[in-house]
Specification:
alpha+beta, 11-stranded mixed beta sheet, 4 helices, 11 strands
């Protein structure tokens, strides 16, 4: 747990966890958190937990859940209006041409492939995608980018970085040569700043990346 009060609970998702139940039938993170709440607070019966947003299964990092029906619609609005500031870390094989830049693409989603394609110009059924990145570290074989999202599109970071040749480590779907052994990709939701839905105070949360040699060398 990264943060917890009566209305909000924030967890550091491990790569491989699904946030909400899906067709795989695997146990979702939402159920794990419900069990944690039931046990910690000795709650009989059903535990309320609202899913506010998601992360791709192979991605790690910050996930916010609502603990009350009062907080859920407020958090939903906050995220829908892009009032929650999200910062990611990505480990990529190739250095970007510019150490710092803003990427603007039009993303078109292919549901059958569960993949989004980045276009320079608008195409039919595409959505505008904007992110800011900067190179924050050079590792032995990789580069670490810090990314601030201006929009929240399907596979946005993965697709946009791939389109400029900065393929995320382990991301076979977007061009990596090899997968990571655990099926993860080196994309991590590192930091989140948002206004608490009830207390109205600004909260900033930072999540440590998973433990592995590459992530360990990022700190």
């Amino acid at each position: 747990m990264l943060y917890e009060d009566n209305h909000v609970i924030v967890v550091n998702k491990r790569p491989g966890d699904i946030v909400q139940g899906d067709k795989t039938g695997d146990k979702p993170l939402s159920d794990v958190v419900k069990e944690y709440i039931a046990e910690k607070y000795n709650k009989p019966g059903a535990v309320f937990l609202g899913v506010v947003h998601r992360l791709d299964r192979p991605t790690s990092g910050i996930i916010v859940f609502a603990r009350t029906s009062k907080a859920l619609p407020r958090l939903n609005t906050l995220f829908a209006n892009k009032e929650a500031k999200k910062t990611y870390w990505a480990v990529v094989k190739n250095a970007p041409n510019k150490k710092q830049d803003t990427l603007v693409h039009w993303l078109k989603r292919n549901p059958k492939q569960n993949k989004s394609y980045a276009h320079i110009n608008e195409v039919t059924d595409s959505k505008k995608a904007i992110l800011d990145y900067k190179q924050i570290k050079k590792l032995d074989n990789y580069y670490v980018l810090e990314i601030d999202l201006q929009t929240g599109r399907h596979h946005q970071i993965r697709s946009q970085l791939s389109s400029i040749g900065c393929i995320i480590k382990g991301d076979l779907k977007y061009g990596a040569n090899r997968s990571n052994k655990d099926g993860s990709i080196h994309l991590h939701a590192r930091k989140l700043t948002f206004v608490h839905p009830v207390k109205k105070e600004t909260i900033t949360i930072i999540a440590p990346p998973p433990k592995d040699p590459v992530w360990d060398s990022c700190n």
